[in-house]
Amino acid sequence: DAKTTQPPSMDCAEGRAANLPCNHSTISGNEYVYWYRQIHSQGPQYIIHGLKNNETNEMASLIITEDRKSSTLILPHATLRDTAVYYCIVRVSNFGNEKLTFGTGTRLTIIP
Amino acid sequence: DARVTQTPRDKVTEMGQEVTMRCQPILGHNTVFWYRQTMMQGLELLAYFRNRAPLDDSGMPKDRFSAEMPDATLATLKIQPSEPRDSAVYFCASVVATEAFFGQGTRLTVV
Fold first, then answer.
1. What number is the average pLDDT over the span A27-40?
2. Any CB–CB contact under 8 A between B1 and chain A?
3. Which of A96, B59, B91, B93 is a plausible cystine mate for B35, CB 3.0–4.6 Å?
4. Rounded Cα–Cα distance for residues B97 and B99 (Å)
5. Percentage of chain A modeled with pLDDT above 70
């Protein structure tokens, strides 16, 4: 799996958009970008994933640069419940024989 | 609301005792991951199964840890004998398509 780099921590004001960056400069052409988050003492939760096009779902948006070497997870209107550790992972989208390896993530704190 | 169920939620045991953690994956999911989480090491992948067959358990200390899937509704992680350094939260995840669903974890404390 390609290595990812994320800032260790970020703050965001409640109600504002939270933009979480991730660098994955060694990503291969067939590797997807996945985002998970872990709220304190809970199991990780899937957020979104994408290959090269931008993606949006009910939780977040994922913006992937054209060269695919970096991406940004956007939480459009952050709430206090979005305080969590966010993990960016790159992997081939084939869970059958593919590990899901977590890095250290970004600890996002939403400020009231 | 389908979810992954892990039991027990909390376990305190004495060093040297056997510990068994259980995971009930979501019905129909054929891939199960086991992770261990500590403050120092973060989330570490211990083992994973597909269609009940072990695919990779290279992250697991073989001398004391064992993982099995006796049937499609149950995955187990066993530690024998347990040691204080095994104290951690153990998560299992059940996978369908491209999404992994995690249980709430078993918090293990070995004293």
1. 92
2. no
3. B91
4. 6
5. 94
